[in-house]
Amino acid sequence: MKNRLMTLVTTVVAILALGTGLAKSANASEPHYIIATDATYAPFDFQDKNNEYVGIDQDILATIAKREGFTYTLKPMSFNAATQAVASSQADGVIAGMSITDARRQVFDFSTPYYRSGIGWATAKNSKIKSLSDLKGKTVALKTGTAGAQYAESIKDQYGFKITYFSDSDTSYRDVINGNSAATFGDLPVLQYAVKNGTKLTVQNPKDPFNAGDYGFAVKKGDSAALLAAFNKGYAAIKKDGTYDKIVNKYLDAKASTFTGSAASNNSVWGILTSNHSAFWSGLKETLYLTVVGIVLASLWGMLLGVMGVAKSKFLRGLSTTIIYLFRGMPMLVLAFFIYIGLPAVSGTKISAFSAGILTLVLNEGAYTGAFVRGGFNSVDDGQMEAARSLGLSHAKAMRKVIIPQGLKLMVPSFINQFIITLKDTSLLSAIGILELTQTGTLIVTRNSQGFRVWAIIAVIYLIVITLLTWLSNWVEKRTRS
Question: Is residue 120 domain-shared with residue 110, that is, in the same domain?
Answer without folding.
Answer: no
